[in-house]
Amino acid sequence: MTTSISVEELRELIRGGNHIVVVDARWTREKTPYDCYTTAHIPLAVFCDPAMDLAGIPSREDGRNPLPEIERVRDAVRRWGVQSDHLVIVYDAGDGLFASRAWWILKWAGLKNVRVLSGGLAEWERQGQETAFGPGNLPHPGGVPVTSGNMPVVGIEEVKSWPEKGILVDAREALRFEGRTERVDLQAGHIPGAVNLAARSLQNKRGGFLPVEELREKFAAVGIVDGSNVAVYSGSGLHSSLFIQALEEAGITGASLYVGGWSQWAGNPKLPIVRL
After folding, report:
1. Is 190 in contact with 234 (CB distance < 8 Å)?
2. Which of 75, 66, 108, 62 has its CA nearest to residue 268?
C-alpha cells in the first residue's frame, strides 16, 4: 500500500493536468511558513500553515501539537480547493515530518486519497524541477466531506495500560527514549512499557522510506506484524505520524496514534517515567 509519490510521478501528473491538489506544508525555525511558500514552491501548490491547519492550541495538559478542531481542517481543505475526485499530494522541506503529519491529519479527517512527496521540496529541486514564487493561485473552494475520527487514536488513559495488551512504540531517537537528553519537553525518559524504534531509522538519506522488506524487518524486530495492537507516540505527533505512514507503506494498517505524546505525558508530574 503506497503512501508516497515520487518526483517523477508528480511531475507527470502536473504536466498531464490531472485532478490533483498539491499542498505545501513546510515549517522551519528560520522563516514563517508563508515566507517559505512565497519564496519558492512547487507549481500549483497551495499554502498550508502547519501550526494553524494541522494542530490545536498547545498546552501542558494536551501536549505541543494536539488534534485540531475539525472545523479548522474543514476550512483549510475548502481553501485548498479539494474535491472528492482529487488526489491530494503533500510535501514539506524534505525530512517528511510535517508532510506525514499533514497526511495523517487529512486521513483522520476522512480524505481517502492522500500521498506524500518522497523527499519533499529538497528532492524536487535536487532533480532540477522548476519552482514558482509569490502568493500562488486562489483555487475554487473545495467541497469534499470532512469528518473527524477516520484514523485510530488513543488517549492518555488508554496509553497507561496499552503495554499490557499490545505494543506501545516510542518513535523518538534512542537518546531521548533513554532519558539521556531532552531539549523540548519538561522531563526526559519514556512511558513505562514502551519499546523504541526511531522513525528516522525507517528513512533513506533523501527523506523517502526504506524498501518495504527492510521496513517489515525493522517492525518485526520489535514485534510488529499487525497494526491493530500497536499504539505509537513521539514528542508531539510528528515522528509518530511518520512512523504510522511507514507502517502503512509496508502494508501494516490499523495502528493508533497517541497524539499528545511525550509532551503531554511528561507535562503531568504524577505519571511515571522510565530512564535507562
Report:
1. no
2. 62
User: 122 in helix, strand or coil?
Assistant: helix
Under 8 Å CB-to-CB from 19, ≥6 apart: which residues?
83, 85, 86, 87
Check residue 216 and report its DSSP letter: H
Q: Which residue has the cell 495488551?
A: 165
Q: What is the pTM of this model?
A: 0.97
> Environment class of residue 152 by beta-carbon count within 10 Å: exposed (0-12), middle (13-18) or buried (19+)?
middle
Structural domains present in the chain: 4-126 (3.40.250.10), 153-265 (3.40.250.10)
Q: What is the pLDDT of residues 130-141, one digit of tens each?
A: 999 999 988 999
Question: How far is residue 167's CA from residue 84's CA, in Å, rounded to a whole number?
Answer: 35
Decide if 99 contacts 92 (C-beta within 8 A): yes
